[in-house]
Amino acid sequence: MSLRDRVTFPRFAAFTTGLTLTLVMLGVYTAATGSGLACSAQWPLCDNGLLPQTIPSFIEWFHRLVAMITGWFIVGTAIWSWRRPETGTRLTATLATLLLPLQISIGAVTVTLNGMLPTGYSPPTQGAHLVVALTIFSLLVWTALSARTNGDPPLPRVRRALLVAFGALVASILASRVFTPTPYGPAGQALFYGTSLLAVAALIAATRWLAASSVPRLRFATGTALGLLFVGSLLGRDLVFYTPTVRLVNAAVFLLAGALVAATAVLVSRARPDGRAGSVVSSD
């Protein structure tokens, strides 16, 4: 099998989604180390040239390089989607591409105008940068799911997705600032967002597959858990002063999301293809 045969659209879309997840983690690490302000408040140049001159500048420069590569992969995904006969992937892939200029502009403002502020990054700009990134990632997840042609029954796929979502959610809680024994440094923040995005992807998959299952109403539970996870992710970016009260709210958000995922998993495990609860008993 040639390389051209191996690189199918579903694999390309899935790779682009994974690359976007990596970019978000790298962006969080760059911001947490303060490296985003290391290029002398210049964009797209760095340290008055094309190449960085210090370690912090290299981190910011490398983040920009990965962002550029990821952007072209997202554009490529959208172009490829329009060359395919089915239309299910076109809308989400195109929307992700249309959001790229906005995300690039916010990133440029973050490391230039915001770098001139006494306190560095401003919460509104930082929050907008994260919200757009999460939106692009979610659109790419939906694109990758739409590109797959899987004839398996939806319930087994939902069970696997919920298992991944619950495991990733537990890992994100342990890496978050809610769990005080874990240092919430640059690496910890990157790990928190990496596991959170993995949980987001799994919940999007579960919600999509539940809609085509015998228990479609359960998708409202996974959708609610997805919304709670978004709120918890935003609280992890210092958008508000992290008081003990905010920590308590953050913990409650994560616990409620985990409870919804666990409860949905139990109900799905008991569901039968005809939509009724109970174990499936085979008859000879």
Automatic annotation (TrEMBL):
Q: In which pathway does it act?
A: Porphyrin-containing compound metabolism
Q: How does it sit in the membrane?
A: Multi-pass membrane protein
Tree of life domain: Archaea
On whether Membrane is a keyword of this UniProt record, the answer is yes
User: Where does it mainly reside?
Assistant: membrane
Query: What Gene Ontology cellular-component terms does the record carry?
Result: membrane
Signal peptide start and end residues: none
Pfam families in the cross-refs: COX15-CtaA
The GO annotation for biological process reads: heme A biosynthetic process
Q: Per the UniProt record, which residue ranges are transmembrane?
A: 12-32, 61-82, 94-116, 128-149, 161-179, 191-211, 218-236, 248-268
> What are the recorded GO MF terms, alphabetically?
metal ion binding; oxidoreductase activity
Give the UniProt subcellular location, in the record's own words. Membrane
Looking at the keywords, is Transmembrane present? yes
Q: What InterPro entries does the database record attribute to this sequence?
A: COX15/CtaA_fam, COX15/CtaA_HemeA_synthase
Provide this UniProt record's keywords sorted from A to Z: Cell membrane, Disulfide bond, Heme biosynthesis, Iron, Membrane, Metal-binding, Oxidoreductase, Transmembrane, Transmembrane helix
Q: How is this protein named in the record? A: Cytochrome oxidase assembly protein
